[in-house]
């Protein structure tokens, strides 16, 4: 009977493999006019791993270039980013199950019987099937500002789960690409 909780745990972990993305934007910004971009600050923030900073910056450059934007001294929009991480623990409770003799019994030729171990009723002891998942969530937070007015126009967060103590740059690249896939925001569909 542990197959059902195991299948549920695999389903939960399969859903958690891709980055989680959240975005916000200024609906009054005219995103269609933006063709070039520049960096707000090219220095590594104090306390940040300079190798990670350089790799994430390169990832943002590559993603924007692939989307048709060109790096310029004074761009139509300006980009800044930060990287956050936090340790998280998630607990999944798949409910109790019973182990012991029981099941669909009936009177048989040897007396009252049941069908094997763990069944549906009868004698047994309840066990909880709880799964504890401890991981690090790394987030790439990208902020975009209008180049002329310097007002914020777009905010995106791409977050991924990673094992503790190890930076997975493939997942950081996926988080960058997933967040920037929502830039520029699509105009709302009216009348649907």
Walk me through the structure.
This protein is α/β, with parallel strands linked by helices and 192 residues long. The protein has three helices and eight strands; from the N terminus they run αββαββββββα.
Q: N- to C-terminal separation?
A: 46 Å
Percent of sequence in beta strands: 35-45%
CATH topology: Double Stranded RNA Binding Domain
CATH class: Alpha Beta
**How many beta-strand segments?**
8
Count of spatially separate domains? 1
| Unreliable segments of 5+ consecutive residues | 1-15, 106-122
Short description:
The protein has three helices and eight strands, in the order H-E-E-H-E-E-E-E-E-E-H. With 192 residues, it is α/β, with parallel strands linked by helices.
What labels describe this entry?
single chain; 192 residues; alpha/beta; Double Stranded RNA Binding Domain; six-stranded mixed sheet; two-stranded antiparallel ribbon; 39% strand; disordered N terminus
Describe the secondary structure blueprint for this structure.
Layout: H1 3-15, E1 20-25, E2 36-39, H2 50-66, E3 70-71, E4 77-99, E5 106-108, E6 111-113, E7 125-146, E8 152-162, H3 169-180
Parallel strand pairs: 2-3, 2-4
Antiparallel strand pairs: 1-8, 4-7, 5-6, 7-8
Helix pairs in contact: 2-3
